[in-house]
Design a protein that fits this description.
By secondary structure, the chain is α+β, with helices and mostly antiparallel strands. It has 8 helices and 11 strands. Bound molecules: adenosine-5'-triphosphate (ATP). The site of adenosine-5'-triphosphate (ATP) has 20 residues, from α1 and α2.
């Protein structure tokens, strides 16, 4: 079964407090966008195999898609082995949740291949997603969602009218862990009080741009080219610019691509995963 696994952007990202488990409590408005990886899942006689067409992506147990397959295998008597292949199109370590999208596609895809009576419920799938990574629950839900806690509490919102975004990925990567550590150094209060920082829509921008000023320059360029807003997604370094009309977005893309080759025109999507090949268990008897 082949699936599209959509990237996300953070329309807003507020870091509320540091938790006892070392993660942060967040409040983020996330939106699925049309840039996607292609994930193929199939049953095998035994074991888990994860392959990817991009050699920079870890394969085997270090791939988050492997963890997803392992979790589902542990929950279902129907599956004894799994093969996953990822066609990587979402830039890595870019604040676009590419890995989480792949993991969500594996959970959703494998569950769809199981006979309907043995499938996990959507709620159980979301619980499993939450155990695998912070953004997996969102990627399973998709569309536009308010995401809270460490990412496990996901509430879908009314979709926006179709909106276009220019994504610009500069030539460096930002580790999510590092970005939160920088945030903590800058803003963590001594007491347990909620964090006081409230500048901008993405609280991680200030600490990340401090180390990578290029991100601030891309924001300015996108605004100068006509985007109505420009902001860093997640822990960066990808910046998105908001555009209402596709024709305007195409002009901006052409200009920004001259300087940043890894720029993309994407649009709002109302789901996180899309099955491209028919789902066998959804066919009626005798089909
Ligand atoms: P987020 O926005 O959720 O913080 P991100 O877009 O910044 O995520 P990812 O692309 O998901 O980051 O990957 C972060 C790291 O995870 C990579 O550097 C890579 O080593 C590792 N990784 C494991 N599995 C995958 C996968 N399937 N795709 C991409 N990276 C993966």
């Amino acid at each position: 079964m082949k699936l599209k696994a959509f990237a996300k952007i953070n329309l807003s990202l507020r870091v509320l407090s540091l938790r006892d488990d070392g993660f942060h409590n967040l409040e983020s408005l996330m939106q699925s966008v049309s840039l996607c990886d292609y994930v193929t899942v199939e049953f095998a006689a035994s074991g888990i195999e994860v392959t990817c067409d991009d050699p920079r992506v870890p394969v085997g147990p270090k791939n988050i898609a492997y963890k997803a397959a392992e979790k589902l295998l542990g929950m279902s008597d129907e599956v004894s082995g799994v093969r996953v292949h990822i066609e990587k199109r979402i830039p890595m370590a870019a604040g676009l949740a590419g890995g989480s999208a792949d993991a969500a596609a594996v959970l959703f895809g494998l569950n769809s291949l199981i006979p309907r009576t043995s499938q996990l419920t959507p709620k159980k799938l979301l619980d499993l997603g939450g155990q695998i990574g912070s953004d997996v629950s969102f990627c399973l839900t998709g569309g536009i969602c308010l995401v809270e806690g460490r990412g496990e509490k996901v509430t879908q919102q009314e979709p926006w009218p179709k909106t276009y975004f220019i994504l610009v990925k500069p030539d460096f990567e930002v580790s999510t862990k590092w970005a939160y550590e920088e945030f903590d150094k800058m803003f963590l209060p001594k007491a347990d009080a909620p964090l006081a920082h409230n500048e901008g829509k993405n609280y991680l921008e200030l600490p990340v741009i401090g180390k990578f000023p290029e991100i601030g320059r891309i924001k300015e360029k996108l605004l100068a080219l006509g985007c109505s807003e420009a902001q860093m997604s997640g822990s960066g370094p990808t910046v998105f610019g908001v555009v209402n009309k596709r024709a305007d977005a195409e002009v901006i893309l052409e200009k920004i691509k001259k300087e940043y080759t890894r720029s993309y025109l994407v649009e709002t999507i109302e789901k996180g995963i899309e099955a491209l090949t028919p789902n066998p268990s959804s066919r009626g008897r005798g089909a």
